[in-house]
Amino acid sequence: MAEFFITILIIFYALAILFVLFHSLFDAHLIFHYIRSKIKGAQKKAPQPITYFPQVTLQLPVYNELYVVERLLDAVSQIHWPAENLEIQVLDDSTDETTDFIAGKVALMKLKGIKVHHIRRNNRDGYKAGALKHGLSLAQGEFIAVFDSDFVPAPDFLHATIPHFYNDAIGMVQTKWGHINKSASWLTGLQAMALDGHFTIEQSGRNAGGYFINFNGTAGVWRRQAIIDAGNWQADTLTEDLDLSYRAQMAGWKFAYLEDYLTPAELPPMVSALKSQQYRWTKGGAETARKNMKKLWRSPQPLGVKMHGAFHLVYSIGFVCIILYVLLTVPLLFVKQYYPAYDVVFTFSKIAGLSFFIYILHYAISYMSSTEGPVMKRAGRFIIDFPFFVSLFIGLSFNNSLGIIKGYLGIKSSFIRTPKFNQLNDLKKMVSNKYVKTRIDWITITESLLVVYFLFGIITAVRFENFGSLPLLFMAFAGFCMMIYFTLDEIKLLRRVNG
Prior knowledge:
Blueprint: H1 2-40, E1 56-62, H2 69-77, E2 86-92, H3 98-111, E3 116-120, H4 127-138, E4 143-146, H5 157-161, E5 170-179, H6 186-209, E6 220-223, H7 224-229, H8 240-250, E7 254-265, H9 271-298, H10 303-313, H11 317-338, H12 343-348, H13 352-370, H14 375-395, H15 397-409, H16 427-431, H17 442-463, H18 470-497
Parallel strand pairs: 1-2, 1-4, 2-3, 5-7
Antiparallel strand pairs: 4-6, 5-6
């Protein structure tokens, strides 16, 4: 019986390692394309000059964004484009005083000659996707730019993006996200490292290699016809942006990615907001994979495009593999100690080191590319931050895995917005945000138990002199400690603010 259970443990352990290995090899291929494109100077081409000014619609999907909507409206009011060829749609599904504030702000904008429409629906059907689809039915623009409420587009945004549509094959142009509050805290700094990795290596590498990339839900521009050809916005996943991206590219449209043009945004400064955002992204990614995987493999795309697309769609499974890998490390310490016949299996597990090296390379390149300052100082900062970065995402892996499993099982859930703050450094002001709902739930309790579990694993590894397992166990312990510390700190401050 013991051997049966050991075999089951090893099978799941091996599957987790193999998925991470294969994913890292695809990641290495993207690194290759990224470096090659830099050598060729493909990312440094001068933008084409504006030769004509087509009709453009700016869509601003808003739902209870009291703290940031003014900043967004002020920013889009400054975008350079002929007034007669630009309209702004505030797609307002709010259920609080945000609506009254928008109404007043829109009235002032109209007095300045800005063509802006405050669009309300009778219900919130389809959430963000439903709002965008409804807005599209009313839009006048040939091109549709989308900005979430926490973004601050620069005045030259359309001058940087629209010329790429002079190529009739281009259906969408995505800009790189910048970070308004990157240096506000440790938590926002580590998030910036993760997003920079995606926007530097993944988006650039896929685009350079001719593979599918994705619209990131905001800070990009669509050709209206590409949206229509792809079947319009659809609300059957929580990542309507990823879903539409794949349907449009399978329909034959090409995408362009602008790594060198930043559109700044606010990073979630609280762990409760981060967990909500990560849950939605990973669950939506699983739903999109479930919906589009067969269509991708049946499409006439080249094999390389299909393979990279498939691993892109199932990317979030990596979180399930991470939590499996670290959880199984502890019982396998006992297997290694008391069942030496299985030693060969643990020799095989050393291939995980190759994956870890590739991921270090991935984030080192993106970190050095996305930060400023002397090279040695940046390198030193990366060496310090990277273990904590890994710890944070191990800590998020349980929360994310729940969403991924529900996504693949087809269990539906509502679109939970990420609270926005417009408070870059003051945590006390952040927790007074009316949209914050930090609480101790069963997920928090489970994360607390995992802290104890990994502490037990560390003690066991030391006792068995299995020192090779200690770095992973320490990072898992630290990651779940982060989840508990940040959660309890938010709750403490909430209670203090609310009396």
